[in-house]
């Protein structure tokens, strides 16, 4: 069975927030900034545009205005980033939704929520880039890019920037320097940059805002003085506008401003707040802890009613409360203004913020906004409540490949609390195991066993006890220790009875361990018990795994018709549910069935795909099985050198398994085969390896070669390693030198030319 399985459909997760896919609606007071808009227009050869400046410099307003003007010429997608987007699966789910919203013809077959983080860059992004190439001119704005602080999320964007088609324009708005290879882009003239100095208001632009839009009637000298004192800082000028609206002597007020932005803000905050009645001030201060706010949520924070009307009033008069939808239901404060309000809240009501976060947690929990509920519980120090919710919903997040999100939550708990909470340790062990982080998962399991509270239960995720969950985990992901997996599978089956929501997974895991232990008849009984309940409860990955394993069992029992039937049924479910790029086991079953039917060429195609998928997953069991079957087919095709290369790979994978059982037996059988021979430096390369070797003579990277040949980087890397092994070398340069010495490249080129 495949390693990443879930117990039920992710029915409780909130949908993508559509408010993140649109910029704040333009304000009547907005000033056209034609000089900056012109610099944002796409030019040939530009791969990336970066708008980098501190908070309050007008980045979002500028890009929103540019988008409104530009979308008549090309589709422009928008995503407002937040901390949750540090999970690459979340990030690219939003990007895909945004692009589909403006490019209806965009057909991307793969899904980040199915593929998971490990396959974003080798499957999803190549698929997306190919589709964007066919779409033509298009653009994507990622606002608040500074929110991406994790390496994987930033790395995926860097990968995308490097390979996006020339017709695609990517624009980033960020408060700080993005961790991207800007130097190389700058050197090649492929980067447009707008910085703090560029975004500063000119006197003419400030005059339009203050006198034409807001009708303040300021003298030109006062406007110029204000621009100088604020250094053109957009937020300072907007804050000044709010204060000046209520001032009798506006010239005197302008002259009282400090010379630095910090002083301007400190001075103006009291002025802006004091311009409102106490009820409105209370709303502004207390709702500042929220990323997004609406009337009912603010009512919960203030423990009273009427917030919706106040928000509507504020949105019309306060330039720093921005509507997020056309209905006027959701809003957010300008990020800088929200920061200032939070500082003032702590000054006026020390210690209230955690209480407000806990109220926000309760509201979001009751309204099924799980991400926001957990975030507010953590911010409010409500770790017990946050822990209960994480323990209840982690499997829903794993179902849509949001492993990174769950791990990020766990990192925000006090370390000592996690180490003393069996539920959180279980979640940590499961998610780390599913993420192929073997050592860290083992550490979490060891900590759980040291607690000695295995009989606690039932658990919020549906397990009957801590022991049942741990036994199921060890049977599901045995890391090649099939003796221990079998023992844990039997124990899990005792603890999780036929009515348990986890029973399909338990039965499938036990059946898999029995299969790799050579107990085929009993394996079939457990796998049969798993199949239909898994299908009925929409546990698609469990069902695919059970069907694929039943096919392999049938092959061992010489039931060729059943073997083919189960393999095809597993493939049908995988294809219908979009799992074909993540469930390598189904391709092992298809390859084995084709080999049994005497169709080795087809078998090899399926088994090669199984190797690529399972290698990316990071778990040894299915990878070893796929490699061993691939080697056997190669031997049957008399491709001894290719088989020997694969056997070497399989040998290392099997060696990583503490108790490999059937895998060790198969490896020994292959190595004893009279058709197996050790390779030497002059061994023949396969046709595909020769093609890749010829391309290694160029300056193309392995990833570039993969794009040229429409193969994944993992496939190219595997072939390159095989080339090195066959030639007895360890580097690209050595391989080319050895190939030249042996005349491999030259003879092949001459042969090709003569034909």
Task: Please characterize this protein's 3D structure.
By secondary structure, the protein is mostly helical. Among the domains are: 18-30 and 32-198, Rossmann fold; 203-274; 467-668, Serine Threonine Protein Phosphatase 5, Tetratricopeptide repeat (Alpha Horseshoe); 687-754, Winged helix-like DNA-binding domain superfamily/Winged helix DNA-binding domain (Arc Repressor Mutant, subunit A, Orthogonal Bundle), CATH 1.10.10. The chain contains 40 helices and 7 strands. The strands form 2 sheets. A 5-stranded parallel beta sheet has the order 2-3-4-1-5, with helices on both faces. Strands 6-7 form a two-stranded antiparallel sheet. Strand 3, helix 6 and strand 4 form a beta-alpha-beta unit. Helix 20 runs antiparallel to helix 21 (403-412) and helix 25 packs antiparallel against helix 26.
Write the layout of secondary structure elements.
Elements: H1 34-40, E1 48-52, H2 59-70, E2 76-80, H3 88-102, H4 112-115, H5 120-135, E3 138-143, H6 151-163, E4 168-174, H7 182-187, E5 191-194, H8 196-199, H9 203-213, H10 220-230, H11 234-245, H12 250-255, H13 261-274, H14 278-286, H15 295-302, H16 307-317, E6 321-323, E7 331-333, H17 335-348, H18 352-366, H19 370-379, H20 383-399, H21 403-412, H22 415-419, H23 422-434, H24 438-451, H25 466-476, H26 482-495, H27 503-516, H28 520-536, H29 540-556, H30 560-576, H31 584-596, H32 600-617, H33 620-636, H34 640-655, H35 662-672, H36 687-696, H37 702-709, H38 713-727, H39 732-742, H40 744-754
Parallel strand pairs: 1-4, 1-5, 2-3, 3-4
Antiparallel strand pairs: 6-7
Helix pairs in contact: 5-6, 9-10, 11-13, 15-16, 15-18, 18-19, 19-20, 20-21, 20-23, 21-23, 23-24, 23-25, 25-26, 26-27, 27-28, 27-29, 28-29, 29-30, 29-31, 30-31, 31-32, 31-33, 32-33, 33-34, 33-35, 34-35, 36-38, 37-38
